Structures are given as structure tokens and as C-alpha cells.
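Input record (Table S2, row 418):
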Amino acid sequence: MAYTVEPPAEGRRITYDEGSGELRVPNNPVIPIIYGDGIGTDVGPAARRVLDAAAEATGRRVAWMRVYAGEAARDWYGENLPSETVDAIREHRVAIKGPLTTPVGSGFRSLNVALRQTLDLYANVRPTYHLDGVPSPVKHPEHMDMVTFRENTEDVYAGIEWEAGTDGAEELRRFVEEELGCTGVIHDGPVGVGLKPITEFGTKRLVREAIDYALEHGRDTVTLVHKGNIMKYTEGAFRDWGYEVAEREYGDEVITEDTLWEERDGELPAEAVVVNDRLADNMLQQVLTRTENYDVLATPNLNGDYLSDACGAQVGGLGVAPGANFGEGRCLAEPVHGSAPKYAGQDKVNPTALILSGRIMLDFLGWSDAADLVRDGVEATIQDRTVTYDLHRNIDGGEKVSTSEFAELVAEKIRGMG
Ligand code: NAP
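Output record (NAP complex):
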């Protein structure tokens, strides 16, 4: 049966002025929400409850428009990513989603990646910060305060790959060996092949976002994280184009690390952002051993995925790690975690990651007062030691609560603060 989702009548549409780059947000915006697969049906309603409380406490109301992808969409529409869902997110500009399951090896391609590519959400932004009271495996979790800007549309995630034994894989092998003369590199026998496109366009618009963010938020550094020593013409190019943006487009507002030492003896000019670069493998230890030295990270797609999970582990793990995807006048908030199928429907997991993803969305709407309430409400609830199983196992003497109970406690805190 065909199923058509209508925008709620009580809401108004968010619009975007391309000329000025301004988002126009009514007090009752229509916001599409995908609960998602697995634990999505637990954390989705929980996050909604908290975001509603924050909106109401600041004199607004979100008109939620529930849309479907993944398993729920297969039930309704017979397909994983119905065009109706993509259109709703495109038209309403700001949306939030829970996790969607992606089968490994065979089956359909990632719906998350498809959504990001279709809507050209080119920057996946993952802020990693410590909330007081969240247990951590490191001595000073409060030192962690980084924001990862991960390129979201290319790299090995572009989906240009061929399965071993297919004509595509064999044709590419022949082309590489015979036309390009790269012989003796690919072993004989079945080979799976993928391409890793990194473009000047994709790199530069991502790095601009990272630098703009650093300037707007008074951050000290932007670090380009790459593996350019090995992948010279992809990750190395990411580094070079990143520096080119910094040097050519930002004048005195930005200074590169080399210039800082060569011309200024390490003396930092007032209020300038320093752009530096680090190799990705080194960076995975730097975020642990020199946490305080880093602020904003700009990375190709794969590095950013690894790095943001590693950063998140220092401040509470996947249950509390938020994120959002940004494009031109667009935001699709989503947590870092996946659908954790083994916990699906148990009202058990931590909804904080999706709640704090919602906080990013509220900030994007210009509702920073509501966004602050969300953060403060979550933090106050965790400080009370009323936490879900994941944090409870590392807290002495706390009270273990369910997903929905945690959300209600946060909403109560917000109502008390508003
Ligand atoms: P996952 O779903 O993130 O779960 C891995 C582990 O992280 C869980 O077993 C749990 O650890 C912990 N965890 C995740 N979310 C949590 C939460 N809200 N509260 C508390 N703990 C949480 O990763 P996965 O098992 O590798 O992936 C499952 C599926 O999700 C795959 O199909 C994958 O493709 C998909 N995925 C989707 C997205 C997305 O939609 N953007 C992102 C990543 C993965 P413990 O059991 O140790 O407590």
C-alpha cells in the first residue's frame, strides 16, 4: 500500500535565502525525524521528549514530521530509502535521524551514506566534549574538547567499488596493469577493487567549514589529519588543498604552523587560528597523549570516522557521542553510534548521543538558549548519577535507569531550568 506522509498542519516550513546564506526559522518549524533501525525506536522518542521540553521552555514548538527509512520503510514502502523521505528532508532543510543498519559485505549500500550524498551534506561534524559526571578511562577527560569536520561525500566511502570476480573488478585490474603500467602490484586471483576520489572542490569546502567554525567559536587550531606520506595524491592532496584555502582565503585571520615558526618564532598573533597538519596514525595517539593541544580537526571521510570514535571513547563512548551533517543551508543531525541490534526495543540504551545531536540541530536553528538547556539538562541528570547501563557500569553507586526514564529525568530538569 502506498503511504504518504504529510507535514503536520500546525507547523511552518524553514526557508533559506541563498543570497545572504540565512536560514529563516519560524517558532513552530516542521522538522522531519527518522527514528531509525534497532535502538532507533528507543532513542528516537526519548530524544524527541527532551527536545520538546527545551523548545517549550524557550517559547517554541517543533512540529515533528515522522518519516521512514531502513526497516520501517521496507514495511511501509517496500524499499529502504523512499524518495518521499529524502524529499521531506530536502524540503524542510533541517532534520534528525537515528541509526540505520548497513549489512556488511553483501546487501544494500549504506543508507546513511546515500542520504549524505543525495542531499550533498558534505560536512559530518562531530563535537567531542566531556560532560561532568560521565565516567572516563582517562585521567583528565575534561581536556577533551575537539570538533571533527569529516568530509562526507568522497574518499573510499564514495561507493565506487567492484566485487571480486565481477567484470568491473577485472576490467579495472586490466586497465591498471596494461594501460597504466602498474604491474606486479595486484596479486593474482580474485581481487575486490575500490576507488578513493579526493577532489579539490570537496576538500576545500570542508576545510572552509572547519576554519569558519574555529574563527566563529574562538578556537586556536585547525588540524588537517591525513595519511599523505603514503597516499600522496589523495590524502597528500587533501593536506595541500587545505593549506591553500588557509593561506589564500583567510588573510591574517589564519596562520600556518610553518609560518608561525619560520617568521614569528612561535609567537601567536592575537586571535589568529593556527592551521597545522598531522599524519592520521600519529593523530590517533596525539588525541590521547596531547589532548589539550587540539581543537578542530579537518579530515577525509575514513580518517574522521576512526578518529571521532577514538576521541569519543575518552569522554563516555558511543552512548554520548553526537554528530550532525551539514550542507548549504542544511542540517541532518545524527548520533555517531549505530543501531546496536542486540539492544533493540529493550528501553535500555543511552539516548544522550541522539539528544546531544539534537542540541547541534537547535544551535543550527539559532535556538542557542534551547540548545544550552539540553546540554545542562543532560549534564545535571548524569551528575545525579541516574544513568543508563553503559555509564552505570563505570559509576560507583549510581542508579541505573531505562532510556525513557533517563529522557524524562532530563526533560524534568529542563522544565525546572526554563
Ligand atoms: P553500534 O550499533 O554503534 O554498537 C556498538 C556498541 O556500542 C554497542 O554494542 C554498545 O556497546 C555501544 N553503543 C552503541 N550505541 C549505544 C547507545 N546508544 N547507548 C549505549 N551504548 C551504545 O555499532 P555496530 O554494532 O558496529 O553497528 C550496528 C549497525 O549500525 C551496523 O549495521 C552499522 O552499519 C550501523 N551503523 C549505523 C550508523 C548510522 O546510522 N549513522 C553508524 C554506525 C553504524 P556495549 O554492548 O559494549 O555496551
